[in-house]
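Dear support,

I submitted the protein below through the web form. The confirmation email said the job was done, but the results page showed an empty box. After a refresh the structure appeared. I'm attaching both so you can tell me whether what I see now is the final result or a partial one.
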Amino acid sequence: MITKAKSKMKSLIFKGTVIAVILIAGLITVWGIPDAVESFLPVVETVSMTPTEYNQTVSGNGIITQTPHGDWYVTIAIGESDIRRVEVGQSADLSGAAFDDGIYTATVESVDETASHRQVDYSHETVVEVVLKIDNPNTVVISGSSGTSGESGGILRSGYSARADIKVSETRTIFVLPYSVILQDDKGEYVYVLSKNSALRRDIITGIELSHGAEVISGLRTSDRVILNPQSLSDNALVKEGDSNAE
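What the results page shows now:
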């Protein structure tokens, strides 16, 4: 009796083990349980390079005035190192505290033929006066948070201060990454990209610095998924340069 009971128990254990193995195999197939390499990589967010329209600009501050004929102007001072890039006919954007997020467009009407000196803090600066005519004083362009823009009635008054950003180059598209994803060491600047469930270092060269990020000149493709929070990666997730599993 005892022998038969033990034999029956062994049979039940064996059957149970076989069923458990089959169930686990099924779960792996259905749910795609990550392999050992994947398990080293924490859940990460990625970001791609953002195409951005860019114009090189020369900027200056001035006061808005209105002529008796109803035309609106702003006169700004440009430093001698930048004035060579400013020409009559170039377009500009005018911004100011009184305009909130609004922008007026303007055109360079004249560039003074003589320079003058002005005191800035404890030093003197050589500047040239540039006069810009506001294209449409009755219309201000307002940019929204979604990137779209609209127009509304003008709110100009003589005496308002304004900043003029004169576009001194043709518009071109650059590719930008947030500053938070760009790291730096003795070798230079680099980022981590997601590649086959691993984090791969990519050395990059940056260029123009904008308020929201830096231009990437080389080192990345537009399809690369750059890890948004590289500081969150564990050492086990990092793949050294040249690793055969990286690509």
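Response: this is the final, complete result; the empty box was a page-load delay. Confidence is low (pLDDT under 50) at residues 27-40, 144-148, 240-247.
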